[in-house]
Design goal:
It holds the Pfam family HTH_1. Residues 1-58 form the HTH lysR-type domain. It comes from Actinomadura spongiicola. GO terms for molecular function: DNA binding; DNA-binding transcription factor activity. Keywords: DNA-binding, Transcription, Transcription regulation. By secondary structure, this protein is of the alpha/beta class. The chain folds into 3 domains: 3-83, Arc Repressor Mutant, subunit A; 92-161 and 262-287, D-Maltodextrin-Binding Protein, domain 2 (3-Layer(aba) Sandwich), CATH 3.40.190.10; 162-260, D-Maltodextrin-Binding Protein, domain 2, CATH 3.40.190.290. Helix content is 40%, strand content 25%. The chain has helices at residues 3-15, 18-25, 29-43, 59-80, 102-116, 130-138, 197-209, 225-230, 273-287; strands at 48-51, 54-57, 92-98, 121-127, 144-148, 155-169, 179-180, 188-191, 214-218, 235-239, 250-252, 254-255, 258-267. The strands form 3 sheets. Strands 3, 4, 5, 6, 8, 9, 10, 11 and 13 form a 9-stranded mixed beta sheet that branches. Strands 1-2 form a two-stranded antiparallel sheet. A two-stranded parallel sheet has the order 7-12. Strand 8, helix 7 and strand 9 form a beta-alpha-beta unit. Helix 1 (3-15) crosses helix 2.
């Protein structure tokens, strides 16, 4: 039995379905279901039974959830004792980040955090993708990470920001607004270079919506993308919050919107004080809308 299993059982009881619980925790649904089944096998009891489209607690499941809430509350209280420290003096905080989220971390979050916690030295660990981020956390090379969600079930995720993917195109492009997803089929796009982490992200988005555009230009020179669009070479899919120069281009939303949720992630272990401070700071920043 472990705390992750208890968290998943309590979330399933609160949300009524394993799918909703997984979405609330920003973990993969199969990982959550597997953890609950493992706990049931370990205890030798059935915690949930199907009820309509969801699940309902069995009698013994209600008792387990009641005690799980007590246990999780006690763990949270114990972790809270870690705040008695010397103001984080001389400490180092290691944060892993994917390449597409690095501008958010280094350009927005860290400068503000440094003003609040000048004694904390932050080391940024750059990772190509979510798998490498998870590996850094598991190996203890990073205390926290900023990455896209969901993450594997052995990680704890705290939602940070929902990012919108938009179409950046030459003003001459005639397309309905907001842009229907079907418009991407056959559209000429400026794309990141093949094999890059940025290209993998865009390819994932395109596969998810079932669109097949035409690669007009492939370049990993991010600073040149807008110029290529402005020159009429093609349109660009990218995140609205990472567009600084919109002169000479048109930015359009999709219908339905294309979004990706990012989060602050850590392994299921006690966080050092500086990491707890950064997590609290990031949550407050997200709540205040940056």
């Amino acid at each position: 039995m472990n705390l992750r299993q208890l968290r998943y059982v309590v979330a399933t009881a609160d949300h009524g379905t394993m799918t909703s619980a997984a979405q609330a925790l920003y973990v993969a649904q199969p990982a959550l279901s597997r953890a609950v089944r493992e706990l049931e096998r370990e205890l030798g009891v059935e915690l949930f039974q199907r009820s309509g489209r969801g699940v309902a607690l069995t009698a013994v499941g209600e008792q387990v959830v009641r005690q799980a809430r007590v246990a999780l509350g006690a763990v949270s209280a114990i972790e809270g004792l870690a705040v008695t420290r010397a103001d984080g003096r001389g400490t180092e905080l290691r944060i892993a980040v994917t390449s597409t989220l690095e501008p958010e971390l280094t350009g927005r979050l860290l400068p503000r955090f440094a003003r609040n916690q000048p004694a904390v030295r932050v080391r940024v660990i750059r990772c190509e993708d979510r798998d490498r981020v998870a590996a850094a956390l598991r190996a203890g090379r990073a205390d926290l990470a900023l990455t896209d969600l969901p993450v594997p079930g052995d990680m704890t995720a705290h939602p940070y920001e929902q990012r919108e993917v938009v179409l950046i195109s030459p003003p001459t492009l005639k397309v309905r607004e907001p842009v229907p997803l079907t418009a991407l089929d056959g559209m000429r796009l400026v794309l990141p270079a093949r094999g890059s982490a940025r290209r993998a992200e865009i390819d994932t988005v395109l596969r998810r919506i079932g669109a097949t555009p035409v690669a007009a230009v492939e370049s990993d020179e991010r600073g040149a993308w807008i110029g290529l669009v402005r020159a009429g070479m093609g349109s660009l899919l990218w995140y609205r919050n990472q567009i600084d120069d919109t002169e000479g281009v048109t930015v359009r939303s999709f219908m339905p919107p294309i979004t990706r949720m990012s989060g602050i992630v850590h392994a299921h272990r006690k966080l050092p004080p500086a990491a707890r401070d950064f997590l609290t700071f990031a949550k407050d920043t997200a709540r205040d809308g940056h």
